[in-house]
Amino acid sequence: MQDLKNYFIAIDREYKEGDVAVFRQKFSGENVVSAVLYSTALGVYEAELNGKKAGEQMFAPGYTYYPRRVLYQEHDVTAFLNTGSEENELVFYLGQGWYCGRFLCENQTQIYGEKPAVSWILQLKFADGSEKEIHSGIDVDELESPYEYAGEYDGEIYFADGRNNVIGNPVAYTGTTDFALEKTLTEVRIQEEMPVKNVTVSEGKTILDFGQNFAGIVEIHPEFFEGETLTIRHGEILNQDGSLYTANLRKAKATVIYHAGAEKKTYRPRFTYMGFRYVELSGAEYKPGMVKAYALYTDMRRTGFFECGHEKVQKLYENQVWGQKSNYVEVPTDCPQRDERMGYTGDGQVFALTGAYNFDTNDFWKNFLRDLELGQLDNSEGYVCATVPQTGPAGIGFVNMLGWGNAVTILPELMYWQFGDEKALPQQYESMKKFVEAEIRKMEGRNLWLGVSLGDWLALGKDMAWQAQHNNPISNSFIVHDLKVVSETAKALGYEEDAARYQAQYQATRDAYLQMFVKEDGDVADDYQSAYIMALKFVIPEGKLRQKVMKKFVENVRREGLTTGFFATEHLLPMLVEAGEAKLAYDVLLQEGCPGWMYQIDRGATTTWERWDAIREDGTVNEDKITDDNMVSFNHYAFGSVGEFYYQYILGIKPLEPGFRKVKIQPYPDERLGRAAGSYLSRAGEIKSAWKYEGEKVMITVAVPVEAEIYLPDGRMEKVSAGEYSYEVNKA
């Protein structure tokens, strides 16, 4: 539908942050038998035909790298037509969104363009077989907007009555349309209604508790009040006095102001969403049914399930699922509440495997990687930004890239193994290659990159200044992995020269890493827990040295407990299991003190936190600044990467071949859980694994849709075909 490029329209006035334009087009539907609407925008839009919304997508057309790619939607709106003599009204609400609204930590505006624009084509078919197109380039009025303000961070100010007068006509959009138009692959929708769990009053204001931290909106039902202004503020937690806590929102107001009137049409925010568990209502007396809350997230098929006999372990599982729901909103955001909500590559790749068990995320990542690759085209180095879609020539830069930009290799590799997507690595090969070439240039002939970096972000036990100077083992472990993936992909694609070059560089960088960071006795980076983990994950080959490093790593965990940050936490428990320390892995999972997952559960967490100690033991919020801004999110999914331990180790479900065409089942039961059961709906079919303790026995049941290797806790291994299997083993 490339013709949409010809019909972009915009307001005929200067840009004002928070503006919402309303465009109306009238037409006759007499004798029309079919109506299909194609539409897109530079900004965020919602379309209505005769008062009925076209489609279910929120924030259409979606967030992309606008200089090179914009999405469009197609909706059959025949059912909404007046096909007799009554006139039809097609109305578009156009907000600024990511395109030119206030966005980023720096609270910038007009990042991608000066003002929003919208384009549509309505294809009509008549009873006599004739056809007609109505587009946004003709006979469109601009109406007075009911919105005084609308923005992602601050919320909306809405007037229910009036403001529907014609105030002029739009003008043709004069900005560039030199971008590809592509049909939407994924979309954000309202997914779940969140009922009110508790109502309290603090300082004369009503506090509603929905019992769950989530990303969503609050819908207002104005039939419950008359002529009042209702103000709704959103927050993740309460202050100790019961009032709403909002300090961690930073500059985001996260507020909806609704001016009631005679019109009683249900109001639902179109151009914003919030991260919250609680809302504060003021200006009108609260009545049950007056507001409803809804969780929204990218539409994905749920594929993974887990349940066990340990209440807190089960709660942690549910928390990480809600962390994914809250942060898979267009892009893999860091958090849904404050003035950020950006597509962080690091957070995304860390949680990607867990998320790929919870939901089928292949299309989500396919969409994301498309923008990642396009952003690389607009910086000469081939860098991958810390956030995607890219918002500047080179994003934050190379210093902060390692661990973040490596999503360029980690995500396609995951798509291949988890979903059997055989196109993922070939499609992303040039993108991966550009990034690896940038890494090689930065190594400047030393076979390692040495410099200041973010490393294992928010790791404990070392201050940030120390970490900045000692994170080379973390950064270079990612480089080693990148080189390995690209060399193997080049070989598989038949690019022999590339394969030889990157294989040689992989070996040289791995050898240089071992020489600089790993001692003969197995010590890595002066006994740095995160460095042990990342070296074992990506660098150190099988052999005596690996066993020495494993021993040192286990000793470190026994002595210091959990000290990892964003990246190493994902691999902490799996690496302990690999070291033969499954009980220790469970010890770390179950530890009650801070840092630890159970510590968060004990303090009422319903999602995972950004910082292990986001709430201190005395109940106060940890507002210590690491950067210039408050950095304490209660809905950050990076530490939710523990979810892969649930699927791959507690249940023991792993692929032996891409797409789970062949499966490995190797559960690691622990009596403290009592029982565990779960399933994963792979592309090859549903895989089930369960175990429970009965007296001195452990009963294990498995169901697989394909060939599998089943490894039992007593050391037995069976190769089986598709079917259901039961085993009994002695309790260890």
TrEMBL record:
UniProtKB keywords: Hydrolase
Domain (Alpha-L-rhamnosidase six-hairpin glycosidase): residue spans on this chain: 301-650
Residue ranges of the TM segments: none
Pfam families for the chain: Bac_rhamnosid, Bac_rhamnosid6H, Bac_rhamnosid_C, Bac_rhamnosid_N
InterPro entries: 6-hairpin_glycosidase_sf (IPR008928), 6hp_glycosidase-like_sf (IPR012341), Alpha_rhamnosid (IPR016007), Bac_rhamnosid6H (IPR035396), Bac_rhamnosid_C (IPR035398), Bac_rhamnosid_N (IPR013737), Rhamnosid_concanavalin (IPR008902)
Catalysed reactions listed for this entry: Hydrolysis of terminal non-reducing alpha-L-rhamnose residues in alpha-L-rhamnosides
Domain Alpha-L-rhamnosidase C-terminal: start-end pairs: 652-721
EC number(s) per entry: 3.2.1.40
Highest taxon above the source species: Bacteria
GO biological process: carbohydrate metabolic process
Gene Ontology molecular functions: alpha-L-rhamnosidase activity
Hydrolase found in the keyword field: yes
Domain Bacterial alpha-L-rhamnosidase N-terminal: 31-163
Record Gene3D superfamilies: 1.50.10.10, Galactose-binding domain-like, Maltose phosphorylase, domain 3
Protein name, as recorded: alpha-L-rhamnosidase
Organism from which the protein derives: Mediterraneibacter gnavus
